[in-house]
Automatic annotation (TrEMBL), chain A:
The lineage of its organism: Bacteria, Bacillati, Actinomycetota, Actinomycetes, Micromonosporales. Keywords: Membrane, Transmembrane, Transmembrane helix. This is Tripartite tricarboxylate transporter permease. Residues 12-68, 81-387 form the DUF112 domain. The chain crosses the membrane at residues 12-31, 51-72, 84-112, 118-151, 163-187, 215-236, 257-286, 306-327, 339-372, 421-439. It comes from the Bacteria. Pfam families: TctA. PANTHER family: TRICARBOXYLIC TRANSPORT PROTEIN. InterPro entries: DUF112_TM (IPR002823).
UniProtKB/TrEMBL annotation, chain B:
The chain crosses the membrane at residues 40-62, 83-113, 125-146. Residues 16-147 form the DUF1468 domain. InterPro entries: DUF1468. This is Tripartite tricarboxylate transporter TctB family protein. The keyword Thylakoid does not apply. Keywords: Membrane, Transmembrane, Transmembrane helix. The keyword Transmembrane helix applies.
């Protein structure tokens, strides 16, 4: 049923548009899938929701793996084993999503506000602890996002009517990611640099394949449940340890599959529970209400066709992505000089902010938050937790209020079921992880 | 990561300071919110976030302490940043008066030149082309209704 929708010519086209944009923003320096989806949001409000979500998902899985891989160790190995690794990770991830999503949604239907509060605590702990170089910096980012999320209604508007409706998520994401990146580029003075594409034939030898396939599978197994940042790192470490020779090929094949599986895996909590676990997923979530969709487990019963078409599009999209990354066309793309890319990004950022806010105030807020983004980047503070905090903190407050209203102000309602207790313990353990790792590292040295 | 630790520490200290100030602003704003008989009033979340902003900002400051006393590294190109911010603000205020195409072209050209583009004439051509293409695609084709200047585009 979903495949019929996903294979409809229009949706096929949107999947292709999505992965093309994804590959482009992934290959260009300083841009990633999150600001790309944010820029597309205000421009696609009139699109059919299924088509829009298929495109956003395409940008997500098309862009999330390329950025990290090309940024760190662009080499011939990347060109040979990464595209197929991505295909393997994404396709197996899509199968896992297909099987697990209805199951998880079936459980999540019974979740009440206390369960949601506990789940959000786990997400907050995870993004703070694992997204950045340290817990302090990750948490700082999360709280900055949450503070921006407070603006609106009668809070923090300073009597300015333009702030009464709050600051649009699109404006914040474009500012922190795209403007922050451009500003950093300006301060570093690297505008003359060109992004050199990887040359060489992406032909996979039998030897490559023999060495890659176990790494692809291990990467997929790590990526789907653990998310991009952690799994890419873990997968790289695992492959380095397992391989008897240099491990260069395995060390690329594993993370490529992991990153791809992670971007598909992030769709599981997003679709089945309505909970974003990454910056891009958070941006996609904010699109749901504007299409008249209610994110959460009821999505499967209310808009089942859309969900199945989206999941089916993952299979189709990964075939398109494979064809695209193996075709010679992509080699030509990144030869645009960096100044052109960044100046163009600024024009599109202003266009997106204006389309989202429709006011001059949105553009002023965009510039101010761009400076905050620059400062965060320079300070080594990750930006992704801020986006999760921005989107999730207001709904955490709402769920907490609901939980307390149902219990007439009794806070013990938050730990009233085995599931909530377990989730709170998980949240605490995740927060302790960086401390334990730091302790072990200091003992070893 | 491969950046020298000096600038990162300074930025960290500055961000920490900014967070502490923002925390105070959030707390002051929360204090004037009306109380309520609910278990979780409208001031509860801002109070928590204000406190957290202060604590985490203070943490960043402490972690980066001493960095403000050590000498500067290479001179930073902050004047370029100031110029770009001024351009962006000018874009914001001139957009309704001068129209999208003109403002976008000027924004592209100024940004590219500030970023170190080598051929000014070529950049001007790129800027106008991009602005016109964006206007045609989003205003005419998609119907986003971008602001038009006195000359109608």
């Amino acid at each position: 049923m979903g495949f019929a929708d996903a294979l409809a010519p229009a949706n096929l086209l949107w999947a292709l548009v999505g992965v093309t944009i994804g590959v482009a923003v992934g290959a260009l320096p300083g841009i990633g899938p999150a600001p790309a989806v944010a820029l597309l949001l205000p421009l696609t409000f009139r699109l059919d929701p299924t088509a829009a979500l298929i495109m956003f998902a395409g940008v997500y899985y098309g862009g999330s793996s390329a950025s990290v891989l090309l940024g760190t160790h662009a080499s011939l190995e990347v060109n040979r084993v990464a595209p197929i690794g991505r295909f393997v990770g994404g396709t197996i991830g899509a199968v896992a999503l297909l099987v697990a999503a209805p199951f998880v949604a079936g459980i999540a239907v019974h979740f009440g506000p206390p369960e949601y509060v506990a789940l959000m605590a786990v997400v907050f702990a995870t993004v703070s602890a694992l997204a950045g170089p340290s817990l302090l910096k990750g948490a700082a980012s999360l709280v900055i996002g949450a503070a921006i999320g407070l603006v609106g209604q009668n809070r923090l508007t300073f009597g300015m009517p333009s702030l009464f409706d709050g600051i649009d998520v699109v404006v914040v994401v474009i500012a922190l990611f795209a403007l922050g990146g451009t500003f950093a580029h300006l301060v570093e003075g690297t505008g003359e640099s060109r992004f050199e594409p990887v040359r060489g034939k992406p032909v996979l030898s039998r030897e490559d394949f023999r060495r890659s396939w176990p790494a692809w599978l291990r990467g997929t197994a790590l990526g789907f449940p653990f998310g991009a940042k952690v799994s890419a790192y873990l997968s790289y470490r695992v492959e380095k340890r397992l391989s008897r020779n240099s491990g260069a090929i395995e060390g690329v094949a594993g993370p490529a599959a992991a990153l791809s599986a992670a971007s598909v895996g992030a769709l599981l909590p997003l679709l089945a529970i309505g909970l974003p676990t990454s910056a891009t997923a958070a941006v996609i979530l904010t699109a749901f209400p504007s299409y008249g969709l209610q994110p959460g487990p009821q999505l499967f019963s209310e808009s089942g066709d859309l969900v199945w078409a989206l999941i089916a599009s993952l299979f189709v999209g990964h075939i398109l992505l494979l064809a695209l990354t193996l075709s010679p066309a992509r080699v030509r793309l990144p030869t645009i000089p960096a100044y052109g890319i960044h100046a163009g990004v600024l024009v599109f950022a202003c266009l997106g902010a204006f389309a989202a806010g429709g006011t001059i105030a949105a553009l002023v807020v965009l510039t101010a938050l761009g400076l905050v983004g620059l400062l965060m980047r320079e300070a080594g503070v990750p930006v992704a937790p801020a986006v999760v905090g921005l989107v999730l903190a207001p709904s955490a407050e709402q769920q907490l209020r609901r939980a307390l209203a149902s219990s007439e102000g009794d806070w013990t309602v938050l730990v009233s079921s085995p599931l909530t207790v377990t989730l709170w313990i998980v949240a605490v353990l995740v927060l302790l992880t960086p401390l334990v790792v730091a302790l072990r590292a200091s003992r070893r040295s | 990561m491969n950046r020298p630790p000096g600038p990162e520490q300074r930025a960290s200290a500055l961000l920490g300071l900014l967070m502490v100030v923002a925390g105070v602003v959030v707390l002051v704003d929360a204090a004037r919110l009306p109380g309520s008989d609910e278990a979780l009033g409208p001031a509860a979340a801002p109070t928590l976030i204000g406190v957290l902003l202060g604590l985490l900002g203070g943490g960043l400051l402490v972690q980066a302490r001493g960095s403000l006393r050590t000498g500067n590294g290479k001179p930073r190109r902050l004047w370029r940043l100031t110029a770009l911010v001024a351009t962006l603000l000018a874009f914001a205020f001139l957009l309704p008066i001068m129209g999208f195409v003109f403002c976008a072209a000027v924004l592209f050209v100024s940004a590219a030149l500030l970023l170190g583009a080598p051929h000014p004439a070529r950049v001007v051509a790129y800027g106008w082309t991009l602005a016109v293409v964006v206007f045609l695609v989003f205003d005419v084709l998609i119907g986003l209704s971008l602001p038009a200047g006195p000359w109608g585009f």
